[in-house]
């Protein structure tokens, strides 16, 4: 089944009771049992809920995985995965990653004895140098947030497998429409469902997908034990959003390509970070492991002045100044003061997150309007 067909049909079927084509919102906390232990597969909605079950099956199918679990946020999904580790275990992570991921690693789990190493994964030697008997997880973002770095998933998997290390890929930016890390050998895929899977800026949710039954058993145990689950209404909204994932991502990609080329030729812009450029580092890897280059772009301004970046992001009219990404509307953000403010300045700048860096989530509006908006915002710089 092709992915567009999967997006519409995978994991869902007409309601057996009424024939409703959309999965009903099972807004219930508990389920009546015919006798002790004699139930219809559902006992309590923290453990299982039919609306959530349909969504978990849908997301797992999109990622070509066997098991999916949804959580109250992307960070709750990360929280579940790291809880599979033990004190003394070590994690190797990319050095360019979402600020919230960095924060939960450093300020929550580090104090419980888990050690995190942040390295530039573009050079696999950096990863190999950190591996030891305590290494239990390699955490990958590709494309990374916000520098759009491309990490070779198969290369990381080849390193991990020989050392019995779990590999998890944050696939939020690429989505299952553009990239399937499990097919490349990863053990787990993580999504901030809030973003492209939901697609309409109206839900906060996360997900994990795996085909490894041992990992799945732990995933469901922690999901049930910690209880960081999404509500049925939110699951319904994401099920609806997924049905248009393929057409939305096509338009995101088309618009982002036009915006990237516009910025690249603009006199006020210094560097543009978009995996579709041939000169983008690891562009060939992006072509190999992705089916398109996505809707995310970052760029920095000439002279790298903080006040210039703040001026640009405050002058847009079609783009909206806001955190998050992946919705149908175009968003503009300033990573240093927004999404990556929790990362120390010296750490940010080492990975390229400088004061004038601006991140765009290119939406599905008419591209001409987006280009005109960026032009008028950039024209405020002298």
Give an account of the 3D structure.
This protein has 382 residues and is an alpha/beta fold. The strands form two sheets. The chain has a seven-stranded mixed β-sheet with strand order 1-7-6-5-4-2-3, sandwiched between helices. Strands 8-9-12-11-10 form a five-stranded mixed β-sheet. Helices cover 36% and strands 15% of the residues. It has two domains: 13-242, Aspartate Aminotransferase, domain 2 (3-Layer(aba) Sandwich), CATH 3.40.640.10; 245-378, Aspartate Aminotransferase, domain 1 (Alpha-Beta Complex). The chain has helices at 3-9, 50-62, 74-82, 99-109, 124-128, 153-161, 175-178, 213-226, 232-242, 245-264, 283-289, 306-315, 345-350, 367-378; strands at residues 67-71, 90-94, 115-119, 135-141, 166-170, 188-192, 206-210, 269-273, 296-301, 320-321, 331-333, 358-361. Helix 6 links the parallel strand 4 and strand 5 (166-170). It contains 14 helices and twelve strands.
Primary descriptors:
Aspartate Aminotransferase, domain 2; alpha/beta; Aspartate Aminotransferase, domain 1; 7-stranded mixed beta sheet; 382 residues; single chain; 14 helices; 2 domains; 5-stranded mixed beta sheet
């Amino acid at each position: 089944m092709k992915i567009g067909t999967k997006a519409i049909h995978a994991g869902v079927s007409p309601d057996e009771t009424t024939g409703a084509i959309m999965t009903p919102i099972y807004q219930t906390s508990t389920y009546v049992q015919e006798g002790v232990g004699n139930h219809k597969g559902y006992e309590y909605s923290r453990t299982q809920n039919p609306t959530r079950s349909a969504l978990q099956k849908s997301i797992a199918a999109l990622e070509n995985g066997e098991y999916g679990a949804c959580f109250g946020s992307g960070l709750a999904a990360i929280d579940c995965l790291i809880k599979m580790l033990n004190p003394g275990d070590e994690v190797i992570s990319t050095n360019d990653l979402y600020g919230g991921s960095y924060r939960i690693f450093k300020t929550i789990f580090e104090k419980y004895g888990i050690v995190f190493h942040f390295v530039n994964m573009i050079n696999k030697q950096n990863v190999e140098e950190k591996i030891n008997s305590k290494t239990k997880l390699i955490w990958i973002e590709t494309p990374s947030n916000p520098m759009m770095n491309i990490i070779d998933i198969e290369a990381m998997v080849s390193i991990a497998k020989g050392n019995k290390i779990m590999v998890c890929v944050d696939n939020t930016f690429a989505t299952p429409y553009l990239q399937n890390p499990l097919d490349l050998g990863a053990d787990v895929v993580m999504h901030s469902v809030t973003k492209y899977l939901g697609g309409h800026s109206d839900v906060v949710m996360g997900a994990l997908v795996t085909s490894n039954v041992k990992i799945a058993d732990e995933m469901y145990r922690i999901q049930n034990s910690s209880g960081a689950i999404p509500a049925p209404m939110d699951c319904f909204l994401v099920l609806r959003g997924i049905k248009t994932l393929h057409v939305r991502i096509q338009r995101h990609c088309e618009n982002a390509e036009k915006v990237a080329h516009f910025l690249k030729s603009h006199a006020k812009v210094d560097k543009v970070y978009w995996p579709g450029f041939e000169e983008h580092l690891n562009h060939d890897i992006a072509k190999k492991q992705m089916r398109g280059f996505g809707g995310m772009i970052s760029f920095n301004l000439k002279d790298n002045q903080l006040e210039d970046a703040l001026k640009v992001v405050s002058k847009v009219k079609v783009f909206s100044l806001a955190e998050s990404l992946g919705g149908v509307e175009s968003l503009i953000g300033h990573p240093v003061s927004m999404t990556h403010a929790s990362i120390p300045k010296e750490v940010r700048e080492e990975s390229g997150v400088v004061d004038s860096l601006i991140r765009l989530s290119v939406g599905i509006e008419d591209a001409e309007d987006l280009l005109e908006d960026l032009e008028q915002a950039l024209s405020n710089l002298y």
